Structure formats: C-alpha cells, structure tokens
Amino acid sequence: MRLPHLLIAVLVLAGAAQGATAVELTDPYDVLERHYEAIGGLERLKAERSSHVEAIFRMAGLEGVIEQWNETPGKHRMELDLQVFRQVEGDNGEFAWEVDQNGKLQVVRDEASLIRRELSLRQESFEHRDPESEVFDVTLEGTESVDGVECYVVRTTNTLNDDHGVEFINTSTFFVEKTVTTSPHGEMHTTYSDYRPVNGVQRSFFQDMESLPVGQKQAIEITSYEVDVEIDPALFEPPGEDVKDYRFVDGDAAIGVPFRYIERHLFLMVTIDCSTSLWALDTGASITVIDEGYALALGLEPEGEMKGQGAGNVVEVSFVNLPPFRLQGIEFEAQTAASVAISDLFRRTSGMEIGGILGYDFLSRFVTRVDYANETLDFYDPATFEYDGDGVVLDAPLRSHTFTVPATVDGAHGGLWSVDLGASGTAFHFPYADEHGLRERPSIEAVGFGAGGRMARLHQRFEAFELAGFTIDDPWLSVPPAEVAGALGASDVTGNLGNSIFEHFVLYLDYERQQVIVEKGDHFDAHSAHDMCGLSVWQPEGVPAVLFVAPGTPAEEAGFAEGDVIRTINGIGVDAFGGVIAIRQLLRAEAGTVYSVGISRDGKRMEFTLELRELL
Q: If you ran DSSP here, which 8-state letter would residue 18 be given?
C-alpha cells in the first residue's frame, strides 16, 4: 500500500484582475504573455530571488501548518506538520531529499524524480514560455467554462517525460482559475481564490486541490507571503544525522530471524506491550500499517481519513501513534503508523489473523537479507554492513519508498519494476500491458486481493524472466484486464515484481545505498506451483467456498459456481485439511490428479469430479 505523495509544489502565481475586458486570442504564447502582464509583469517575477510562505493545510480531517522557503535557482524547503503526520522535503541546488513522518532521510535519485527536478528548474527560468524551447510545447485548446467563468485552455507538454499540465486562464482577467497536472500517479486538480497583491504580484491565498483517481482533497490557506527575504543556506540542506529509532538486542545485527512463508507472503511475530501477533513484511508498503481493529483493541486512537493506493484500488487510511514494539533480536521505539482495516481481508482469503504490515518505516532502517528457501531474515546496521558474497549488485533507486530494478520478460518486455515483497505474484502494470498488447495473449481469468480489495487479473505464461543476469524459465505473470485505479495503474514502471520470482533467490535490501543484491537461492531451480484448475477458493464465513471459476478451465467443466461451499474432498471433511490454504495447495498438484469434491449450493449437496491439467 502506498500513501499519496504530500510534497507541495511552489505555490502558483494566480490572481484576479479588476475591470479587464475579454479578448480573443489564438496563440498560446500570447495568452501566457497577457497572463504574466496581468499578474504584475514577467520582469518583476524574474527579479524575485527568494520567498517564504506560511499557510494552514487541511487534509483528510486533519489540520496543520505548512511552511515553504524558495530560492533561485532550484533551492527549496517545505515543512508540513499535521501533528500526527509530519513531513519535510528540500533541495539544496545539487540534489533533492525528504524526511518522512518517522524522521527517515532519503536522497531522491530515481530517474523519474530527477527528470521532474530538471523540468522544475527549466520552468523556474520561464523556458516554457519560449516558442523555441526544445523541451516544452505549449498549445491552446480553445476555451472552456470553469465554475461559470470562460477560460482559455493552455496545455504544456515536454519531451523529457509524459507529465503535462493544463492551465485554465480567465479570458477577461488573464489569471489562472484552475490547473490540472497529470503524471503517471494520477491528476491533481487545483482551483484558486482570495487574490491579494504581494510585492506587486497578485497571488492566490486560498487553493483547493483534489488528487485523482484516489479522490484525496486538500486545501491551503496562506497566512503569510514574503518575497526577497534572507534565507540561511543551511535551511536547504538535509539533516546531518539520520534517525536511529531501534536497537539490536545483541551486537550490531539480528541474524537468523525466522519468518513463515505462507501463500507467497512473509510473516513475522511482532510484540506490542504484551500482545504478540503475525505481521506481514512488505517492501511495497510506503508506511508501516497496523490493522484498524487491532489498533483499537490496543487502545490506539486513529486520526485523519486519508486515501492511499492499494494494489488495485483505493484504501481508507488513518494514523496512530504506534507504541514501542519488538521482534526477535530487535527493539523499536514508538512510530507513526497507518491504520487500515486489513485483518478481515487476510481472514477471508487465508484464514489467518494478522496484526499489521511492516513496511518502509521498518525496513529502511536496515540492510535486510531475505533467504526464501530457509525462511530466515538477517538484519544489519547499514553503517557497518559490507557485502562480500558473489551475488549481483543492482542499482535500485527508491520510488515512493519502493525499490525499482531492471528486469526483462521474454527478452522483449524490459524496463524498471517495483520490488514488492508484499505481492505473491508478479504483474505487469496496466499502462504497459495495454500499450504492448499483452491483454490479447492467451490468458486464464482470475481474481486476487490487495490492500484495495478484490481485483480481476489475467494469468499468462511466458518463456523466461531475467533478473540480475539470472533466468527463471516458464514464469507465470498477471496482467490487469482493464484500467485500474491503484498502484498497478501507474505508468512509470513496467510492473510489480513479487515473490513468485523472488522465492528463487536470496535478496539483500539496502535502503541506505538504494541497492538490491541478488544471489541464487537453494530453491533456484525448483518448480513454482501454479493454478491447475481455474478454481479460486476463500473462506468469507469461516468455511471454504468458491470465490471465482475461470471460464474454459476444469473447474468450469466440472460444474463449480461462485458461492459453492466446499464440504468434502475425496470423501474427507474439509476441516481435516486445516483450512483454505491447504485446499489451494491440493489444487496445485500435478496434472492428471483427480479429486471428488462435495459442495453445497442453495441448501443442496452436490458432488463434482475435478481433474487437474496445465491451463496454458
């Protein structure tokens, strides 16, 4: 699960003029020229060397303050304080950095962010208003009404990435009424009001924002706006020391910490006060998450109602002050964590009770060694860790707190993939799959679950998956059959790399150096079990039942239907198998295996013969 990125861009110079007369223009650069003239003049804007802004920030039922400093060229700092949630980010003119809600420093160096940084520098010098620019292209797309106000629609694109912005400029006043900025993560819609002059330039002192597709709303109410102020250069530098909010119980590492590998998910035992529960380990979670019900049982009060991105949809998120917690070999201090209703999802899909998800706020403190074959974890202090193995070291810049690494499918479908230890399978993102026609390949329909709930997918078989020079033969990957709103809808990476691939390896996850080290695991050549019948099962009421029947598969041919309650397998009551996980394992047995499955449907008992076979 990923939270929306709350970094606030330089506040837009928008305003309202008085007594202006509407004119008709056809050249977008003429519209921009009139805009800058109307708000106070381009030369006055270019002469401004620095600014300091203070504002009230409202979001998700939370209210706090935001403070922002800017200095040309390219330096800025932003501090957001919502009390339960704090964030600081900046740029010293050489590199960008950010500090999350738990004080963890991260230097921003993924390619997508570096490109956006370059574009911001170019816009700061007003290159976008130059018709001869080799980077920016500005077009006028006619006029459109915004809240009853007729506006020129001016679109700005660039040659460096797919981001683009649209300004709705009042045809009478030539001030910006609204902007829509689009990136691979979605759209941000911003409207402007309460215009006041500052240093001869009209500025919007109130801005309403909504991010789509998650639908998160934010508002900024400026309380102070200063221009050409003296700013201490040290303000733009990252903190000199990183957070250290944990300790190893013995020495400078925790070695051989066991985990349970269940249904291609990693689970550890975590203790809070005197309560111990299973927690999932997830590099795809941009923040540590505690189950909403578990948090309430511990007496933790949730605050706020934010929207985050799950694997296939939007999730509701609150925040809690997580007390100190511990696991084998490690003790953690209190942290801010997200509170999400996740336990019921695990209960229905696997019959398991979990307390939460250990995400970026946990993993980023360490270099973590993950040995899938032996189900052990080693946690090292980044300051003393030195790698001396024979694995392959991959540069893996963090994007939204998640590693990205290069990988290739069938020698043709390459690019950067998100490293997601919270995902059981490996999946193409919808934009890549759609652009490359992958949805038309031979597929088996299926359903899965993520933090955002139920989602459809297409299982497909490929020839080879290559990671770090290692090749996994005959991998099964999935493709979204339709456009999705969650993380799998992002277009800036090829896909999501999950445990169906990683289980062949030993991984080292180094957040400090933004590297992933890949070694062959003891089960590198092991066959990966996969769907052999098209029958998806879960236990929504504590009893195994049919969730989905894939068309054209043995499950459909046998007569199964969604909602069938499974009573017996080969004459043995399902209770004897130990739950839905064991039943799934039976359904992944060798081709030719035959089961007699007893079900109940609408109060009637029925018996089906199910023979497993290769589906693709």
A: S
Three-class DSSP category at 323:
coil
**Residue 239, φ and ψ in degrees, nearest 5:** -55, 145
Q: Is residue 149 within 8 Å of residue 160, measured between CB atoms?
A: no
Q: State the pLDDT at residue 10.
A: 36
Give per-residue burial for 102-136: e unless 16+ CB within 10 Å, then b.
bbbbbebbbebbeebbebeebbbeebbbeeeeeeb
| Cα–Cα distance list, 16 to 202, 240, 334 (Å) | 7, 43, 47
Q: Measuring CA to CA, which residue among 100, 189, 95, 187 is closest to residue 147? A: 189
Q: Quick one: DSSP state of residue 527?
A: P
For the beta carbon of residue 499, count every other beta carbon within 10 angstroms. Answer: 22
**Segments in the chain below pLDDT 50:** 1-21
Nearest to 55 by CA among 225, 231, 228, 191: 225
Cα–Cα distance list, 15 to 12, 169, 228, 372 (Å): 9, 10, 20, 58
Predicted confidence (pLDDT) per residue in 11-20, tens digit: 444 443 333 4
Phi, psi of 456 (to 5 degrees): -80, 155
Cβ atoms within 10 Å, residue 275: 12
Q: In angstroms, rounded to a whole number, what is the distance separating the alpha carbons of residues 290 and 335?
A: 11
Task: Find, among 529, 469, 537, the residue nearest to 503 by Cα.
Answer: 529
Contact present, 56 and 223 (Cβ < 8 Å): yes
Determine the Cα angle at 194 with ends 193 and 198, to 5°.
115
Residue carrying the six token digits 């606030």: 8
pLDDT value, residue 487: 65
User: Measured at the alpha carbon of residue 16, what is the angle toward residues 15 and 18, in degrees to the nearest 5?
Assistant: 150
Domains in the chain with CATH codes: 28-236 (2.50.20.10), 396-497 (2.40.70.10), 535-611 (2.30.42.10)
The pTM (predicted TM-score) of the whole model is 0.90
**CA 369 – CA 363 distance, rounded (Å):** 11
Q: What pLDDT is stored for residue 138 in this prediction? A: 97
Its sign, for the CA torsion 437, 159, 236, 396, is: positive
Cα–Cα distances in Å, from 93 out to 74, 229, 240, 363?
5, 18, 17, 29
DSSP 308: E
CB of 285 within 8 A of CB of 418? no
The owner of tokens 């004897």 is: 576
Bridge partner list, 55: 66, 222
pLDDT in tens, 323-349: 999 999 999 999 999 999 988 888 888
CA torsion sign for 568, 572, 578, 583 is negative
Q: What is the DSSP letter of 2?
A: B
Q: Which residue has the tokens 């020129």?
A: 152
Helix (H) or strand (E) holding 508: strand 505-510
184 phi, psi to nearest 5 deg: -60, -20
Element (H, E) at 166: strand 164-170
